[in-house]
């Protein structure tokens, strides 16, 4: 007589080996089919990869000296002190292959329509629009807040849609002149400029009819949906890599506010302006480029922080102050998001890089994963700032002067409530040539 039980203890005893095999096979089939597709993809990583037993899992034991390996959700995992430490890998968007590009756009679209993730997204549209100018982009909060929002979006999508999802970044310094002629502004990536009187994007995965820009509910509680709009400002160009690396090389850990102002002025604000359309106003969160831009900003900040312990913590007076303008029931603080290697829920984020990092800095990057992004904070070894400045074109020299003037005219003594400056360390214009 066969006694069946629920759960993994399926059979107490069976009268024949054939019967046992049949019942166990049936149970496994039913049990497996009851798993959501996300759970199954979590175990396999991809639909066709059945080598899940070789994949690492966050927090499980490993043999010291083991080579890095993929995680169960396509993370990059390293064996540290006998335990697997896995990070979500953010790649350069233009390095993604066609399958990865399709996965990114498809998952993002599914997330927008998911009842939980879509509701969160609509809430963030409201937050970013209502708090964009005077709060979210205030000095001291702009980059920590956007780091938090990227972490929350990834976490929600990985939980409810597909656990392999990670936000890529776009390196705006790759093509700082005539930038609109290069990817990602093509049909294979993000689509191009808006067309016609309404400036709607008509090509690529986010073209009219394939992607809806959303806005806060109107007076009749109706959702306002429209096409994605762009209006390229081709008279604008970003600061060249030579200008940026020279500026950042001249800064020390105590110059965080100069670093933040330079980053905001030289890349962040300019990128929003040159793409135009929705990217140029408080509804920018509707353009997928919003996420790629802020992922790149976060990569630069991570590279800055990886220089040493003195660079790591944001110089705020109260690291345990709750970040403003969060979704309901969330109370994340600056301390929660200051370190990408120690984010909430035991999460680690790392970036691809063409530069080889060693020591403690290595945990912020994913070695072995190719990257064409040549971004670096420092000058080449043996290269002086004066020599680099002397080799600049007139256009680059003007950019350098413009950014330095913006930083120099920022009063770093009148900073928001979050800030504390060491008595013996502040930004001095005389430190720069």
Please supply descriptive tags for the structure shown above.
single chain, 433 residues, alpha+beta, 36% helix, disordered C terminus
Q: How is this fold's topology laid out?
A:
Layout: H1 17-33, H2 37-44, E1 69-70, E2 76-80, E3 83-90, H3 98-113, H4 115-130, H5 132-136, H6 142-160, E4 194-195, E5 200-201, E6 213-215, E7 224-226, H7 241-249, H8 256-275, H9 289-305, H10 309-312, H11 334-337, E8 349-351, H12 385-390, H13 394-408
Describe what you observe in this structure.
The chain is an alpha+beta fold and 433 residues long. The protein is 36% helix and 6% strand. It has 13 helices and eight strands. It has helices at 17-33, 37-44, 98-113, 115-130, 132-136, 142-160, 241-249, 256-275, 289-305, 309-312, 334-337, 385-390, 394-408, and strands at 69-70, 76-80, 83-90, 194-195, 200-201, 213-215, 224-226, 349-351. The strands form three sheets. The chain has a four-stranded mixed sheet, with no helix packed on it. Strand 4 and strand 5 form a beta hairpin. Helix 6 packs across helix 9 (289-305) and helix 8 runs antiparallel to helix 9 (289-305). The longest helix has 20 residues, at 256-275. The N and C termini lie far apart (90 Å). Mean pLDDT is 75; it is low at 1-53 and 411-433.
